[in-house]
C-alpha cells in the first residue's frame, strides 16, 4: 500500500480530511454528542456514559483534542473536557462549505 501524497492536496483538503478522520469513529461521535449535551465533562463521566474502558476513552479524547475540537484541563486526579467553541464553529464552517458546493440540479447520467 502506498503512502498518501498529502502534498498533492490543498491545506484545506488536508485539514478537512484530518478532522473527518478524528470524528470518523462511533466512540468519538458519542463523546462529542455527550460533551455537546452537557457542555463540560469529567473523564469518569464518559466512562459511565460510553461502554468502553477508561484507557480507550482517553485515547479517543486525545484524538479529538489533537485536532482541537475539544479542550481539557487537569485538576488533581480529574480531567475535564469540553468542546472548544471557536474550533467547533471553524469545523462546522468547513463541513458546511463542503456540503454547500453541491449543486442539486445537476444532470448526472449515472
Structure description:
This protein has 110 residues and is an alpha+beta fold. It has one domain (15-95): Orthogonal Bundle (Arc Repressor Mutant, subunit A). Helices cover 55% and strands 13% of the residues. 13% of the residues are buried.
Short description:
With 110 residues, the chain is an alpha+beta fold. It has helices at residues 11-22, 26-38, 43-49, 54-66, 85-100, and strands at residues 41-42, 70-75, 78-83.
The helix count comes to 5
* Overall body shape: elongated
Mean pLDDT: 87
Say which CATH homologous superfamily is assigned: Winged helix-like DNA-binding domain superfamily/Winged helix DNA-binding domain
The CATH top-level class label = Mainly Alpha
Distance between the termini: 30 Å
Largest sheet: 3 strands, antiparallel
Question: Which SSEs are present, and which pair or pack?
Answer:
Layout: H1 11-22, H2 26-38, E1 41-42, H3 43-49, H4 54-66, E2 70-75, E3 78-83, H5 85-100
Antiparallel strand pairs: 1-3, 2-3
List the keywords.
Arc Repressor Mutant, subunit A; 5 helices; 55% helix; elongated; 110 residues; alpha+beta
Amino acid at each position: 500500500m502506498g503512502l498518501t501524497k498529502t502534498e498533492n492536496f490543498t491545506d484545506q483538503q488536508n485539514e478537512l480530511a484530518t478532522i473527518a478522520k478524528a470524528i470518523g469513529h462511533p466512540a468519538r461521535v458519542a463523546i462529542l454528542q455527550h460533551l455537546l449535551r452537557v457542555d463540560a465533562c469529567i473523564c469518569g463521566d464518559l466512562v459511565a456514559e460510553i461502554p468502553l474502558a477508561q484507557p480507550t476513552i482517553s485515547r479517543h479524547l486525545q484524538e479529538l483534542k489533537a485536532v482541537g475540537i475539544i479542550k481539557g484541563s487537569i485538576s488533581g486526579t480529574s480531567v475535564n473536557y469540553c468542546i472548544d467553541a471557536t474550533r467547533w464553529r471553524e469545523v462546522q464552517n468547513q463541513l458546511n462549505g463542503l456540503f454547500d458546493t453541491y449543486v442539486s440540479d445537476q444532470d448526472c447520467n449515472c
